[in-house]
Each structure stands twice: as C-alpha cells, then as structure tokens.
Amino acid sequence: MTEPTMTTHVPLEGLDDWRRSHTCGELRAAHVAARATLMGWVHRSRDHGGVLFIDLRDRYGITQVVFRPETSGVELLTRAEQLGNEWVIAVRGEVARRPADALNPELATGDVELEVKELKILSSSDPLPFQVNDELNLANEDLRLRYRYLDLRRPELAAVFALRHKAAMSARAYLSSQNFLEIETPLLVKPTPEGARDYIVPSRIHHGKFYALPQSPQLYKQTLMIAGCDRYFQLARCLRDEDLRADRQPEHTQIDIEMSFVTETEVFAAVEGLYVALWRECLGVTLNTPFPRMTFREAMSRYGSDKPDVRFGLELVDVTEICAQSPRNVVANGARAAGGIAVAMTIPDGAGISGTQLRKFEDVVKAAGAGGLTFFKVLAADREKQQVIFPGVLLEEFLGRCGAKDGDAVVFTNGPWERTCKALGVLRSQLGQAELESRGLIGASPDRQEWRFLWVRQFPLFEWNEDAKRWEPKHHMFTMPNPEHLDYLETDPGKVVAQLYDLVLNGTELGSGSVRIHRPDIQERVMKVIGLTREQAYEKFGFLLDAYRYASPPHAGIGLGFDRIVMLMAGRDNIRDTIAFPKTASATNLMDDSPSVAEPEQLKELGIRLV
Ligand code: ASP
Fold first, then answer.
1. Which residue, 56, 84, 428, 435, could crosslink 40 as a Cys pair with Cβ 3.0–4.6 Å?
2. Taking the model in full, what pTM does it have?
3. What separation in Å is there between the alpha carbon of 521 and the centre of ligand 1?
C-alpha cells in the first residue's frame, strides 16, 4: 500500500446550509429558469475559449454545468479552472436551455445546463491512478480492483449495482408474494458438505475447535423445513475455498430456496415465476413458461453437455447402428460391445471447411477425451471414397440419419457414451459460438438477446472419483434417488438416478437443486455408498439426522447463483463486475489487502501457533 498523502490543493469548504435541490440526473427542459444546487464529482471539464464546461456526475447521472465570465464572474471562473477530475464540488445557479447545436441526446439531462453562480469546493483529489471518465476502460483490472472505489464510480459499473439491487428487490417481492419467508441462517456453522473446501474460523472460547463458514445454508434450510417453515428463501452468502476460475469467487450469493410438501414440479414453477418477474422488472423482457425440460441423458446425447446452449442446433446424432454395419469401422463395433456409441454432428454448409480446419476440430475433440474424428464433406465428388466406410445404400442411410444435405459436412466419432458425447459437445459449443457471433448475439444488449432457459433433470446420484476410488455425490448427499432405483444403492450405485435438477440459461448453469431425502433410512443408505459411517455422519451433521427423527415433511429446493444472474442480465462476462469488492484469482482483495497477518496477541488468544 502507498502512504496516504492527504494533499489539500486548495482551501476546502463545508456544506454549511447548502443542500442538493436536484441530483445530477434530474434536470430537464421543464426546469429551465429554475434555481438549482447540484453536488457531485467533476467527471470531465472542457475549456472553450474562456468558457468552462464541467460534466458533474453523481450516481444518478451527469449534468453539464457551465462557468461563463459574464454569468459566473471572472473570479468564480478562475477558481473553477483549478478543479481537477474527480474533485467533489457543489454548484448553485440557474438552469438554462442549451443552444440548439449543443443539445446532447445521449444524456438524460442533455437539453439543459446549469449556469453557475456559486461554487463550493468540498473535496479535492490526488492525481488519479486511472481516469474514471475513460469509457474505453483501459486501466488494467488489478489497478481497478486496488482502487475499487474509483472503479465503482464509473457510470457503467455503477449501473450494474443499481441493477443488482433491483434484481434483489424483485426476487424478494416475488418470493414474498408466494408465501416464502426470508430467514437468515448462521455464518459460523458446522461444515456443510457441498464438495468444496471449507473456510474455517478458530474459536477463541473453545481452543482447538473451529466453525466453518457456510458453503451454502443447505443443512439449515432443510432443518427449517423440519421446523415447519414450509417455504424459505434467503439471499445467502456462500463461501467456498476453491481454486478460482474466471466466473467463480470465494464468496458468492445465492437465491436459496426450500419448499415443503412438494416435488420438483412445484420448485420449477416457483423458480420460473421468479425469473419471469426478474426479467420483466429488470429488463422489460417477457419470458415464456414453462421452461423446456430434458433429462441429463437427453442433454448429453443431443448436445454433449449437461448445460446445453440451445440457441443453436448442431445436435448430435446417434449413429451406432449404422457404424456397426461398416466393414471399416471396427472401432465402433468395439465401442458398441463395451456399451459405447458412435455419434455424429452435421455442420450446415460445412463442405467448404478446409482440411486444416477439420483437423483442428479433431484436436479439439481429442483434447476433450475422444479417440479421433472422421469427417465427410457431403459432395458428390467425395461419395466414392466415403463408400469405403459405408458401402452401398449405407452411405445414404448414414447421411440421412445425420440430416445432412449437399454442401454440409459431417463429423463423427465413437467411444464410451458420456465421454464421447461430451467431447463432441465441446466442438459443438465452439462452432455454436461462431454462429452466435454471426447472428450478433455475442455481446448484444440484453433486450436483443435470446434467453433460452431450460431444466436439465434426472442426473445420476453419484460420480466415481477415480483418484480416491470412491463414489461421490454429484450434487450433495441429501438428494433423493428415484424410488425405482433405490435397490441399486447397494448393488450398482452408478445406475442410481436422482431427483436432481439444474436450471440452465444459454449454456450457463444458473443453479442446482433437488428433492431431498426426508427419510433417515434412505439417508443412511446413501451415506454408506459414499463411505460415511454413522459415527462420521453424526459428527458432521448429527443435528439434521437427529431432526429427521422427529418427522420431516417431504421437501425440495434449489440454490440459484445470484451474481451470475446479474452478470447475464447486465450483459457482462466477468462475475467480478457484479460484486462490489471482489477477490482476484488468487483470492486476495487488492483494495483492503486481505488476507493479512494476524497479531501475535490474537493468535495467542485463539490458541494458535504458526509453524
Ligand atoms: N445447496 C445447494 C448448492 O449450493 C443448492 C440446493 O441443493 O438447494 O448447490
């Protein structure tokens, strides 16, 4: 940190009896001839041959204030000429209509300006580390995070926080109207297993014992259902000590929801209603409901992803049967024997794609786990060599199955179902981005976006962790298996499909939830699969297991990433833009310099010795 200089450039004044009459976003033609007192920051100033124009800014907007020798007096003009960018001033004067050639339709206040008669310099600024009025936003992000209070002054970023507030208020109003109660759950908690690392907080009173910061309110919201709360929500802070990716932060906010006496159907309806309200109130956009639903199996098979972007087609096609008849495609036969498949994707008008480019596609799917990639150009001239793979009518059957027409390209590969679909799904996403770009949807303003929400449901309950050689819950261990799959818990956990769902928007996962296990007997069986003994489970969350003994209503819920919702609504691509004081990728806060060292005294009190 640099030493503060606290430079005073000029004599500063207090507010005295001055009060704002209007904000900097308020004055219009109707105010012409009125007296006004404005206060704000000097956004930029322009000297036009002895006349000084200042764009005065506050959270509400920008107003042009003008110092002319004839209206302001020479002395005032001279003082105003000392003002630097971002100084805080108060001005008093008369609202005037701008000359016709000086109207600014870009600005809400652009019809008028304030002819300044009096000026107070309330606060001056050190030289700025970067310009707040730089619309191109050229400063590097570390610098902006270090001086976050300057960064947050930028109108573009301030607008994101106004939107965030509006979204929070809409969410609260909608959920309240549906009988949900907002209840705060504790921040110092027993660890909540969500699969990430906990932040832990040492106890001063109980040396050697620790609280965890909640990865989510999961255990507590379920306990609230047992407590009879019926419908809960919270804009909940969730803390996870994970390695950060571009769209992750150690602290994030969820719209956390839990409901009693429901199945997924009612959760979907409540959440759809919530998004309809958010999009209507924050963006003025009408969303159609119900959102489409598909199973995990269908999403993977058709799109090669459990969070498919359905704004573009490029669907995958199962061509296992046809490939199995190919004399050449021995790999497909082998794959099929091992429960694998052959999958194809048609690239419309792809016949013109160069061989080099097609080989790049192969690199993409290989890096994503596929064995290789075969490509056909659907051109009469290429038919003969393709017949080597698909003799006779088989070729037409193959192309027909792929929905390919002359001028297209078809790419296909084979191997184990999930891995193969996923690999081709990666290529699908890349090609889709190009399509979205050509349709002008990348970076388009929210009112020109296509919002394709959908539910992906019926995920497998467990995932095999190859390193640890054990089953782990795909979501969390409180998720209810399908009743018809309960018997697989002991015999074939990989086959257990659960009442687990994700909400997806344009290829982004917005949140996950599930119908919960409300019966202790089933909960115990699930814990056994993941290798958790009764004792360990009691140690970790005995209170919830205890509570189950006193009768739990069937319940279900979801956690929806709020920062991400705001990011998408604001048309931003960086989650940090939606969090007032975010952390860097190495989990530091460049503004307050946290994490920082603790005083030896503090450590002593906590019974902690650093090694
Ligand atoms: N607690 C879950 C999560 O944070 C959400 C839920 O199941 O409600 O992902």
1. 56
2. 0.93
3. 22
